[in-house]
Please model this.
Amino acid sequence: MLAAGAVLAALLATPAAHARGSAEVAALQVVLSGKRLYGGAVDGVRGPATERAIRRFQRRRNLIVDGVVGPQTRRALGRFARHPVGSRVLRPGYRGWDVAELQFLLAWHGFPSGFFDGLFGPHVHRAVIRFQRWTGLAADGRAGPATFGALRAPAPTIGFSLAAPVVAPIGDRFGPRGQRFHAGIDFPAAAGASVRAAARGRITYAGWLPGGYGYAVSIAHGAGVRTLYAHLSRVDVRVGQRVGLQARVGLIGSTGNATGPHLHFEVRIRGAAVDPLRVLHLG
Model:
């Protein structure tokens, strides 16, 4: 079993730079999507599709078509764009640009809240409370300066390697996917292929998991680190069982919300989802 002290120290290490986009650009993409000008992923990356959408909006509103979201363009975007981050304390029932930024930041810190839509609904409220508890803030479900300050800090990471849970190529990765956030990585594989434990640990869940996961297994590896294996066709372990590295935990399937056989694999630190590719040894 991993030494708890060493693992906890590693959990707090600053992660390397990754392809995380800008929360401000993500909020812009949300408002442009609402105006049916942008149909891409809300990924916070100002690419060609976002640039074209800005210019189309400026042309439609008879503004200077320069692709710059300055004061005039911001005002023309309407009520949704009125509130920049920090201009108010966010709470249930609010909507707008600052709420969309909050959703994006929460997702990258491991607490996705459903669709990126700029609406502070029940899913966002629960995500804020979970994040506040994770960081040791007062869990009041409102997002003010302290919560946004914590969200500007590096996302959580771990400092040890995990073995690949299946021999298969990588499909969808951790990060924005359409209007939502994918909290793990997918491995497309043949139905019935073996799924194996990425590290030794104790089985904490084995069975049907609501929320679209289908048959799934969760393993605790110590110091709050857990891995999740979902969409299985069969579960081969039981809760409380201890398993070794690469022990078989189930078989590839397509149960739950799945369009074909694959493994959905997540890594979480005290409940916060982290990018598995940062710690997976694929060699």
